[in-house]
Amino acid sequence: MATAPRRSADSSPRNSTNAPRGLADMRRRLKAIFIGSIGNLVEYYDFYAYAAFALYFAKSFFPEGDELAQQLNAAVLFAAGFLARPLGGWIFGHMADRHGRRVSLTVSVALMCVGSLVIAVTPTFSTIGVWAAVILAGARVLQGLSLGGEYGTSATYLSEVADQKHRGFYSSFQYVTLIGGQLCAIVVLLVLQGWLLTPLQLRAWGWRIPFAIGGLLAIVAAIMRRNLVETDSFIEVTKHKAEHRKNSLRELMHYPREVTLVIGLTMGGTAAFYTYTTYMQKFLKLSVHLTDSQTTTVTAGSLIFAMLLQPIYGALSDRIGRKWLLIAFGVCGTLFTIPLLTALRAAHSAMTAFLLIATAWLIVSAYTSINAVVKAELFPAAVRATGVGLPYALTVSIFGGTAESIALWCKKIGHESWFYTYLTACIAVSLLVYVFMRDTKRESLIKE
């Protein structure tokens, strides 16, 4: 890989008869995508282990009130991690645009390691009182900073190392590993829940295990990322010293339309994504009234199904364009969100619940599979990581991170269906953006 010739991520081998050179180039891309994706998986596992195990540790940090109140308190802290994501998007986006994608990706996963290990060793309320919740909140902020930087830099990196004809397919692996991180958290829960620990042990101390695992995996991911090859797009930017030294945030102000597009196209998609991932576990438990094991199994099964859809939809976007997939998500999400969630609440079996969630993923995957590459294609290389990461993180903190809290609040006041309407409205607003935006596959700025 070290001897492979440098070329733009958009170019194919110039000499089609030079098979070894083309093979070396492909291996370089695949290795870079694999390492970048694995680190992404670890980061999202660490972040979402909190959501997966909140049913077990909420009482340790918030002992007052009933189970719904405890979960609401835990959800508020989950949302707090999202509030730190815009700051992380700016810090790590600037780092990626000025010092390289590799440096930013390595530092972000190292910070996630710190946050996870802090949660693993934090004493409970019974030991240090309210300080337990304060430390937990601090650790969530560290994780939020890390994840805020991870998304933009990872989306930028995967989009830049992919070749032009398969960029949608390769960049879709960001969400394969993003969902995979959540799935790993669920699998760890399933193993602990079903084979190793009793429910009492899980609530007493077993919930610390996944955070310790995540911290150790993050160390491995950081070591792997230290050896990532830098993208050709960033190398080209560094050749232009005046452009490279510009402040990325200030330069981003020259792209107000693109920043607005990122916010608009993200709004409905992120609200839907977090509804069918982090909130769905609580929904199945508290509203559908499945057992603990049924809740975990259905959640894990639906995430596996979602993972399989991402590269299929990504490859489809390479053939028909990005815009039509986004419009399909917007139309179907607007029409079917309320019927799907209403039917899911009335489900009488785990299989029915799984089929309904799988149907929802057939819709939502039209957004998740390509949203990263669409944003990356909106910006030139000099501001790409900041342009993707900052407005995305801001939108996710407002509409994604709060989805669970809003849903639980609506349930607490006896109007759970209000959340269904809220989610539909978010998707409908994004649909308007999809209709009027350009197709970034045909008008991409990846080469810029």
Our estimate of the beta-strand percent is under 5%
* Poorly predicted residue ranges: 1-16
CATH homologous superfamily assignment: MFS general substrate transporter like domains
- CATH-defined fold name: Growth Hormone, Chain: A
> How much is the radius of gyration in Å?
21 Å
**Helical content band:** over 70%
Largest sheet: none
What's the CATH first level?
A: Mainly Alpha
Number of helical elements: 22
Estimate the global geometry from the Cα principal axes: globular
Distance between the termini: 25 Å
CATH architecture: Up-down Bundle
Run of helices and strands:
HHHHHHHHHHHHHHHHHHHHHH
Mean pLDDT: 84
Number of separate domains:
1
Q: Would you tell me the structural class of the helices and strands? A: mainly alpha
Give the helices and strands, then pairings.
Layout: H1 19-61, H2 67-83, H3 85-99, H4 101-121, H5 125-128, H6 131-161, H7 167-171, H8 173-196, H9 199-204, H10 209-225, H11 232-239, H12 241-244, H13 248-252, H14 256-275, H15 278-286, H16 292-320, H17 322-345, H18 350-368, H19 371-376, H20 384-400, H21 403-412, H22 417-436
Outline the structure in words.
The chain has 448 residues and is mainly alpha-helical. The chain has one domain (30-246, 253-436): Growth Hormone, Chain: A (Up-down Bundle). It is built from 22 helices and no strands. The longest helix is centred in the N-terminal third of the chain and has 43 residues, at 19-61. The two termini are 25 Å apart.
